[in-house]
Each structure stands twice: as structure tokens, then as C-alpha cells.
Amino acid sequence: MTSTVPASLTRTAEGAALQAVLLDMDGTLVDTEGFWWDVEKEVFADLGHRLEEPWRDVVVGGPMTRSAGYLIDVTGADISLDELTVLLNDRFEKRIRHGVPLMPGAGRLLAELAASQIPTALVSASHRRIIDRVLDSVGHHHFALTVAGDEVTRTKPHPEPYLTAAAGFGADPWRCAVIEDTATGVAAAEAAGCRVVAVPSVAPIAPAAGRVVVGSLEEVDLAFLRKLITATG
After folding, report:
1. How many angstroms separate the CA atoms of 173 and 193, rounded?
2. Structural contact between residues 221 and 112, judged by C-beta atoms closer than 8 angstroms
3. pLDDT per position as a tens digit, 42-68
4. Are 138 and 24 in contact (CB under 8 A)?
5. Nearest to 22 by CA among 183, 219, 193
6. What is the CA 17 to chain-centroid distance, rounded?
7. Any idea what DSSP says for residue 208?
8. Which positions, given as ranges, span the membrane (predicted)?
9. Contacts 24+ apart (CB under 8 A), 62-70
10. Residues 6+ apart with CB under 8 A from 211
């Protein structure tokens, strides 16, 4: 976990209904879920295997160990999990070397959170090397804290990543708004006790108590997030 939380930023959360905003990365902030699937298909093609489209719903949003392990199991590829993880990360990092596209509304939302001094964290199942490369494009300054999948003991769908981020801000999880695009990420955030805005990228996500589902980040602003907390708090 990396954290650069200024004292002034932390103080703005005290006594406020909304204490922090925690964002997923792939498919939520940046339009890279398709990149990951393309990379997985390319790597397995090099290994002599063809990935089936229904498998995409299984691996989307999951930690590298789970997704890669699943694909090894269903294809029978002769490769270790560690070897495959390196290949996937290397290929993905090469794919994004010229930058990554933001999801619609992401840039505007990040600017609004920064202008209002809302403590904001990036919480991803991707490894640190990938997060840092993505933030070279998006801007490290948008996030006072980042949590990578290879820096926690148990990653999504376990609540540890979101509990870690909330603790890093000294925030109550139920006063944190989480924005996620997959069922795996939503499960992690809700298990941590956070309020969730789901913006489905690949597979649909149903509304539920303490959760709202929107079609795009263009529907989400600071007022929307504050209302989510007060309405469910």
C-alpha cells in the first residue's frame, strides 16, 4: 500500500457524512477490462489454447491468482501460475505503454473530488507495477492512497483491500463510498461495510440494499455520493 495523506486532507473527513471515496481501477476508472481479456487470449494463444468467451465473465474483476489459475485449469495449459502471472503482467504493461483511456465521466469526477478535498483512494486487484504504470497516465496526484492486490494478504472479493483503504484514512467503512464495476469488487466493498456504486462493465450487477447501479460515471458526482451515504447511513 502506498499512502500520501496530508493532515489537512484527513481533517476534512472528520465530522463529515462522506469520509472517503474508494475507486476500483480496471473497468471503473480506466477502460482496460477489454485490454486484460485481449492479453489473456494472446498469451494463451501463444501457449496453444483458445479462450472461450463465457470464461471472461468468470475472470473479470478477479485477482490475478484466481483468474490465471482458473484459465490454467480450464485450458489445461502447461504453465505454472507464477510463470503465467509474469507473462500476463508483462504483456499488459506493454499494451498500456502509451497510456490508458479513462471511462466516461472519470476525469470530471476525479477533478471534483480533488477540488472538494475528499480523501480518495484507488483500490485494485491489479499488482503494484500495473497500478503505478496506469497512474503514470491517469495522474498519481488524484489519489492520496493506493492499495494493490499483491500488497494485501487476501484480495477481492475479500474485504481486506477496502478495510485497508478505509483504515489508511482513519475513516469508518460505512462512511466510505466505493465505486466498482464487477460483482467481485462489489462483494469486497460490501463485505467491508462500505456503500457501493456499481457501474457494470462486462457483466450485469443487480441493485441491492446499500448499493446503487448506474450506467456510467457520468451519472455520479460528489452530491450523488454524499446522498448515497446519508440515505443508507
Report:
1. 6
2. yes
3. 999 999 999 999 998 888 767 788 889
4. no
5. 193
6. 23
7. B
8. none
9. 62/125, 62/156, 62/182, 62/184, 63/125, 63/149, 63/155, 63/156, 64/88, 64/89, 64/125, 64/126, 64/127, 64/149, 64/150, 67/40
10. 186, 190, 195, 196, 197, 198
The pLDDT of residue 222 is above 70: yes
Residue that is written with C-alpha cell 487470449 in the block: 41
1 Cα distance to chain centroid:
14
Chain position carrying cell 484514512 = 169
Give the amino acid at 54. P
Q: How far apart are CA 28 and CA 23, in angstroms?
A: 7
- The residue assigned the cell 471534483 is 112
Q: Is the pLDDT of residue 198 over 60?
A: yes
